[in-house]
Design a protein that fits this description.
alpha+beta, five-stranded antiparallel beta sheet, 3 helices
Length: 143
Amino acid sequence: MPISKLVVASVMTLASTLGATAQTLTATVQDVRNAEGDLIIAVFDDAKSFKAMDVTNAAALAVVPAVKGQVSVTFHNLPLGTYAIAGIHDENSNSNLDTKKDVPTEGYGFGGMGQNGLPPEFANAAVAVGTGATANLKLKYWK
C-alpha cells in the first residue's frame, strides 16, 4: 500500500479514536543529516507489528519533509497505552528504506535503539502514552 494511502488511513483511524482517554505522543527525530526527502515515523501498539516493521498495522503514521538536525511530530488522539516508535529518513522519497548488500543507505531509528543499530524488542522501545508523552529517535546512517 502506498504511503499516501497509509497516511489517510492513519488519519481516519486517529479520528475514530476521539474520546476522553485520547492522548498525545510527541516523537522527536534527531541527527537528520540533510533536508532531502521525507521522514516516515510509525507508532506501533503491538510487538508483532513493531518487530515486522509492518506500517500497514501501525497505530499512527506520519510522513513529513526532512529538515536537517531535528524534527518533532505530535500524534494526537492516541488511546492510553504503550507504544513503540520507528522512523526512516527516506532521502529519495520512494517510501522504502533503501539498502545496498543488506546495509541501509538511508537513516533509520527506533525508540530504545542501542549503538549496534539493531531494532530493540518492543518492551525496550515502549513508551507509555499519557498526557504529554514524548519519545526520541536518533537516526543511524551507515554510509
